[in-house]
Here is the input.
Amino acid sequence: MKILVARLRLIGDVAFTTPLLRGLRHQFPDAHLTYLVEPAAAPIVRDNPHLDEVIVVPYERGIRRIVSDLAVARALRRRRFDVAIDLHGGPRSAWLVRASGASRRIGYAIKGRQWMYTDVVPRPADLAPRHCVTNQWDLLAPLGVGPCDPATYPMEMVEDPAAATRVDQLLRDAGIGATHPLVVIHVSAGNPFRRWPAESFHDLVVQLARRDPARRIVLTAGPSDAGAAQRIAASARATLGPLAAAVPDLRELDLAELRAIVARAGVYIGGDSGPMHVAATTRTPIVELLGPTLPERSRPWRDPHCFSVTIDAGALPCRPCNQRHCAPGDYRCLTGITAERVADAAERALAIEVHA
Here is the structure.
């Protein structure tokens, strides 16, 4: 049997699909599994042990996308898939799954696109208190795959040996060794509804450094706000004065390097974004900051024995929301989270001895 799995676009969403790959491999041990993904998230699945093949679809616009997609469609059709699963539901992924020519095509019941599939599965409401992994797992039901749980089917991303070597050298060059408890804090997110204020990150870094000057606190950021890490780090160093060495200035990391440095940290701290879900593929303790998103939907999907804690502002009449307009206008779901609460959670995480 040949199975195509398609999930385009965002890093976190692709990470959420990795439990399904283990589920498919368990159900169909002899199947040839192919994953269709765009370049930004390709490192997540490139070395996945349950996949036989990864096809990276160029992210193009306009006429170039049409030309590219036609070429991809021809390549998919040549592979003669028996089953194609659209884990996205967007117009592009639906068309590519249809164009693959697979005799069985599984996708969500989305108005205007249902006709492209042979098996249609109800799609939960966007704000439903149900985890994204569980939502996508629904698409395996037509194949007879049973229920999932994070202990049996965790999210996975294999460490890239070359990226690990680069990160180890980077840490050595920064003077970070075994005597320095490592904290990784991701300070950006794809939209303002998931972005804790820069001032709060500044206060958190200062508190963590003052509580233990031996710590080394690495700040990272994504392309949505690439300069955020440098700005917050510089501000924290200015406040810390003699303790400024606690906040080293490292270069920008790619996705594989980010995964490698998180795996070497004592704790990862960040909002509901792709890097947080990449962090969940390690055993490193996680402190997740949630704004409008419910923990039932976006908590770290991992072995329950791994330390994970979500911190939010509590029950609010406007939470959850569709993340398009802040009704109160003050992003209180984010500003209601204090740096002291996050620092205390990080302390609990750092006290844990993590076994690989």
